[in-house]
Design a protein that fits this description.
By secondary structure, the protein is an alpha+beta fold. The chain is built from 14 helices and 26 strands. A six-stranded mixed β-sheet has the order 17-26-25-24-20-23, with helices on one face. The chain has a four-stranded antiparallel β-sheet with strand order 1-8-6-3, with no helix packed on it. A hairpin with a 6-residue loop joins strand 18 and strand 19. Helix 11 crosses helix 12 and helix 11 crosses helix 14. The longest helix has 16 residues.
């Protein structure tokens, strides 16, 4: 028996009106069967059942206001024949003896029902996302948690998401191990709310102790003992994980023994000497490379999350869009000088001014003359949709994989505002914490391969966009000036890819020439900025 928690049903929505129940108490329902219709301030939404079971309680009447992350109805999972869990919703004392066989361990000690755990149902965490990978549990079974405390980090095919506790209480069960796939609308963990646990008698609380102790074998990720949880932020925990350390081995200097980033860095410096005692594995690894083929092992790694999403989208784009490629050299000598002049002004304001804001701003200006590069095709390629805003995406090579957040409305932003957005999105992308809104709505993309040393590329269009450009590294190359003298110039090579169904070679060449003109003479952009 578990409560179905009303999930997030829209950005910024915290409550909704229960318009109509589509089931009644006692009804047996199927997985994904519509259970209720709720009205938000944006639309009428149908709430489906997370799994097959029998409805034992409806927490609201029609017309009531239901809160997001609060129980909506109570559901008993059916065993396939419909009879195994029928006794659970009836909670008189005499039914406890008949429940002992089919009931899981958390329900056995529920003498008066006050200290029985409730499931936290994984809510919708993004449009179209039905499952996610459990990256790291931030709590262990038996830990006390506070309201809004981070409980687990999960990875979708778009970003890293931190799941927080809906209320204070004690964790009794973690339903998934790390690297396991968790389903949306299915239980993620079980906990006893603190208000019910504090009101329970001491005896049931003591009897409830063996249940969590019987399950540490299932919860392999956590190695902590007792109910003590070492306090540390998710960022510190990630740093510990990336360096293959044990949080329990690090002495925390913060309040209540909290482990800080400085503590981790200090700990990393200490084992420098013992690390010298480990060179022996290196020769062994070298010898293993020369070992016979029969003794070598193939390492298999599943493609998940962002990598899987990128694989699907790139295959779809490359196989359905005829790409037209175009390369050009841009002299950015004057642009680099202008950037150096403006850098102190930007830094005084707290902004980091790179070439990217200039490149984006010039692109937004050129798009106004050639809106076809800021358009999209409908699914059957019968209509061109010209987009009203230039939302420029930038490919970022983060730890979780390649993602493309975008700066919204570049044509309306100042250079400093674009610079701030570029810095924010880059930091968020590299840590895997880009919001869904930052990933949606891109209209044209930039891939900065030059940051890794590349010069030329043949980028793949980020569908449903129709154009993408790859920026090569800037090189000091000889060029002839107006007097025929050889001079040193800063040259950046760019490689365009356009959707050849609607963009021909002449169009992309003329667009690139206009964009190039803005970058080679950046002062001319002042004449066109609105």
């Amino acid at each position: 028996m578990s409560d179905f928690i009303l999930p997030d049903i829209g950005e910024g929505i915290v409550e909704c009106e229960l318009v109509k129940w589509l089931v009644a108490e006692g009804d047996v329902i199927e997985e994904d069967q519509p259970v209720a219709e709720v009205m938000t301030d944006k639309a009428l939404v149908e709430i489906p059942a997370p799994y097959k079971g029998r409805v034992t309680r409806l927490y609201h009447k029609e017309g009531d206001i239901a809160k997001v992350h609060a129980p909506l109805f109570e559901l008993v999972e059916e065993d396939g024949e419909g009879g195994a869990s029928n006794a659970v919703p009836e909670t008189p004392a005499e039914t406890n003896t008949t429940d002992s066989a089919p009931s899981p361990a958390p329900q056995a000690p529920a003498g008066d029902g006050d200290d029985s755990p409730e499931d936290f149902i994984l809510p919708d965490i993004g449009e179209g996302i039905v499952e996610c990978e459990v990256v790291e549990w931030l709590v262990a079974e038996g830990d006390e948690i506070e309201e809004d405390q981070p409980v687990v980090e999960v990875m979708t095919d778009k970003a890293m998401v931190e799941i927080t506790a809906p209320k204070a209480g004690r964790v009794t069960k973690l339903y998934h191990e790390q690297q396991a796939m968790a389903k949306v609308h299915a239980p993620l963990f079980a906990f006893i709310p603190r208000e019910r646990e504090e009101g329970a008698a001491p005896k049931p609380a003591a009897s409830a102790q063996p249940a969590p102790e019987a399950k540490p074998a299932v919860n392999a990720p956590s190695q902590k003992t007792g109910h003590q949880r070492i306090p540390a932020s998710p960022a510190v925990r990630r740093l510990v994980r990336e360096n293959n350390l044990n949080l329990a081995d690090i002495v925390g200097s913060g309040k209540d023994g909290r482990v800080l980033k400085a503590d981790v860095l200090a700990h990393l410096e200490q084992p420098a000497k013992p690390a010298a005692a480990e060179p022996s594995p290196a020769p062994a690894a070298g010898r293993s490379r020369r070992a016979p083929a029969g003794e070598q092992e193939v390492r298999v790694e599943p493609i998940r999350g962002m990598k899987a999403a990128m694989a699907r989208s790139m295959v779809a784009s490359a196989s359905t869009i005829p790409h037209f490629n175009f390369s050009e050299d841009i002299d950015v000598t004057d642009l680099l000088k202008l950037r150096e002049q403006l850098k102190p002004v930007a830094e005084a304001r707290g902004s980091r001014l790179t070439l990217m804001p200039f490149i984006m701003k010039a692109m937004a200006l050129a798009v106004q003359e050639y809106p076809i590069l800021n358009s999209q095709l409908n699914d059957d390629a019968t209509e061109i949709h010209y987009l009203p805003s230039c939302n420029i995406g930038m490919a970022v090579d983060g730890k979780a994989g390649l993602i493309v957040p975008n700066v919204k409305g570049v044509e309306h932003l100042t250079l400093l505002e674009v610079a701030d957005e570029v810095a924010r999105l880059t930091e968020a992308a590299r840590s895997g914490r880009v919001s869904q809104d930052d990933l949606k709505g891109g209209t044209i993309s930039i891939s900065n391969i030059g940051a890794l040393g590349g010069t030329y590329a043949a980028p793949i269009i980020n569908a449903p966009e129709v154009a993408i450009v790859a920026l090569g590294r800037t090189q000091k190359l000889p060029r002839f000036d107006a007097d025929g003298q050889v001079v040193e110039r800063a040259i950046m090579t760019v490689s365009w890819a356009g959707d050849h169904r609607i963009i021909d070679g002449g169009t992309i060449a003329r667009f690139c020439n206009l964009w190039k003109g803005y970058l080679e003479s950046p002062q001319t952009m002042l004449l066109h900025m609105g």
